Amino acid sequence: MLKKVGIAALGAGLVLSGMGLTAADAAKPEWAGQGKPEWAGKPEWAGKGKGKDKEKDKVENVIYMIPDGFSSDYASNYRVYKGEEAVWDAHLKGMFTTYSANSAITDSAAAGTAMATGVKTNNGVVGLDAEGNELESILEASEKAGKSTGLVATSTITHATPASFVANVDSRNNETEIARQMADSGVDVILGGGKNNFLPASEGGNQDERNLIREAQDEGATYVETREQLLDVDDLDVDEGDRLLGLFAEDALAPELHRGETEQPSIAEMTEAAIDALEEDKDGFFLVVEGSQIDWAGHANDAAWAMSDAEAFEKAVEEAIEFAEEDGNTLVVVAGDHDTGGMTTGSNGSMELNADVLQNVTATGDHMAAQLNEDRSNVAEVVKTFTGFDLSEEEIGTIREADNASLAINHVISDRANIGWTSTNHTGADIPLYVFGPKADNFAGFHDNTDLPKLIAEVMKLDK
Ligand SMILES: [Mg+2]
Ligand SMILES: [Zn+2]
Fold first, then answer.
1. How would residue 57 be classed by pLDDT, with cut points 50, 70 and 90?
2. Domains and their CATH numbers in the chain
3. What is the distance in A from the centroid of ligand 2 to the CA of 292?
4. Ligand 2 is a single-atom ion; what residues have CB below 5 A from it?
5. How far is 377 from 361, CA to CA, in rounded Å?
6. Ligand 2 center to residue 256 CA distance, Å?
7. More confident call, 55 vs 420
8. pLDDT above 90 for 37
9. How far is the CA of 125 from the centre of ligand 2 (A)?
10. Contact predicate 108/161, CB 8 Å
C-alpha cells in the first residue's frame, strides 16, 4: 500500500505517453506486428509456467537486479575469473549512458533515482528531481497496481541504490530518514544490512526515538537477523499482508570474501527468500536486488573483492532466472548503475588476462592491511597467507612505504591478475544491459539510464 501523498504523478518520468520512448520504438523487433515471431513456440522462458491459464508474453513480475559499479570491463574480467560465460552474457540486450543532472559522472543516488523513476537528478539526491520535487518510483507504481514489492541489498538497506526506490531525501547520507520512509513505505520484503538505522539511540541505534523493527513486528512483520532464521521462515502470504524484515548486520553485510566468518545469508539466499515470499501475490511482484559491494571493491581497487562479489551476485541472478524460467511471466533486468574504478581488462603492456588467479585470494585488501604489524615487516607473510603470491622485494617495499597499505596491496594483486584501475571513484563508461523473460527484446538498443524504468513500465503495462 502506498502511503505517500502529493507526489508529482510519476514525476512525468514514467508516464507512458510514448514520449521519451524513442529508443524502445527504434528497438522494436522486426517481427513486431507481423504475426508470430520466429522463436514462437520455443522461447526458453515460455510454456513452462505452472499456471495453465497464464498468458504468454505477459510480464507479471519484475526482478530488477543492480550490480553497483559493474561495467563491461567487470563483465570481461569476470568471464576470465570464472573460466566460462557468466549467466548474464547470453542475455545482453544493449547499453546505456549514466550521467546525472549536474555531473558527467554519476553517483549511486542520482543513478538509482534515474533507474527507479526515469528522471535525472543531482549527485547525492534520492528520489527527488533536480528542483527538489518528489518522484514516484517504478516500485511504488507497481505497488499502486496491486503488486507486492521487495528490496534486497548487501549494503545497509538504506543505502542510496535501494533507497532510490522508496525514499525522497535531498541527501543520501540521511539514512535514518531513509529508514523511516522505508519503514512507512509498505514494502513487503526488506532484506539487507543496517540494523542500526532502524533502532533508537536507547538501543544503540541511530534513530532518535522510533524503533522501526519493533513497529514492523507490532504490525505483524516477521523479523529475522541471521541466515539460519531466514532459511527457517515459514511460508509467508504477502497477499494476506504478511511482511518480512531481515537485517543481518548493524551496518553493511560482510564482503563475500568474509561472509563465511559471519551468520549472514548470501545475496542468492536473500533473493530466493524474497521471491518465495513475493510469488504468493497473484497480482505479481516487483523486486529490487542490489549487489552493493562490487562498487566498494571498485573504489578500493580490490579486484578479488570485485570478482568474488560479482560471483555472489551471479548466483542471485541464477536464482532469479531459474524462477523466471519456471514462471514464464517474470522479467529479469540486470543493469549496473555506473562503472567504478575505471577497471581495465589487461594492464601494464601485457597481452594476457589472468583474472583467474584471483580465485586463490581469500581476503580483501582492507583485511590484509589490518593484519600488518607496526613497521609492516610482515607484508610478505600476510600477502602470501591470503593470496598464495610470493611478493618481489620491490612489491614488498612499495607496500611498506605506501600511504595506503590496502590500496598498495590491491594494486599488487591486480597487477598479478592483469586488471588495471584508472580511478578510485566512478567513471562515465556506458553500462551493459541484460534482460531475460517475456518482451526482453524490447530492451534492445542504446539507452539512457532514465529509459530503463520507462521500458520496464511499458512491458508491465503500468499506468494503463
Ligand atoms: Mg549502491
Ligand atoms: Zn560508488
1. confident
2. 58-342+431-460 (3.40.720.10), 346-418 (1.10.60)
3. 9
4. 295
5. 21
6. 17
7. 420
8. no
9. 14
10. yes
Active-site residue numbers? 108
* Distance from the alpha carbon of residue 212 to the mean position of ligand 1, in angstroms: 22
The per-residue pLDDT for 236 is 81
- At 42, the pLDDT band (50, 70, 90 cuts) reads very low
Query: Which ligand gives the minimal distance to the CA of 159?
Result: 1
Among 48-57, 356-365, 368-377, the minimum mean pLDDT is found in 48-57
CA of 66 to the centre of ligand 1 (A): 8
| CA–CA separation, 269 and 276 (whole Å) | 10
Q: Point out the ligand nearest to the CA of residue 425.
A: 2
pLDDT of residue 36: 40
In the predicted structure, residue 129 carries a pLDDT above the cut 80: yes
Whole-number Å distance, alpha carbon 339 to ligand 2 midpoint, is: 8
Q: Are strands 244-247 and 189-193 parallel, antiparallel or unpaired?
A: parallel
What is the rounded CA–CA span in Å between residue 253 and residue 334? Answer: 21
What are 415's three cell numbers?
597487477
pTM of the full structure: 0.89
User: 109-139 as b/e, with b when 16 or more CB fall inside 10 Å?
Assistant: bbbbbbbbbbbbbbbbbbbbbeeeebbbbbb
Ligand in nearest proximity to the CA of 163: 1
- Which ligand lies nearest the alpha carbon of 341? 2
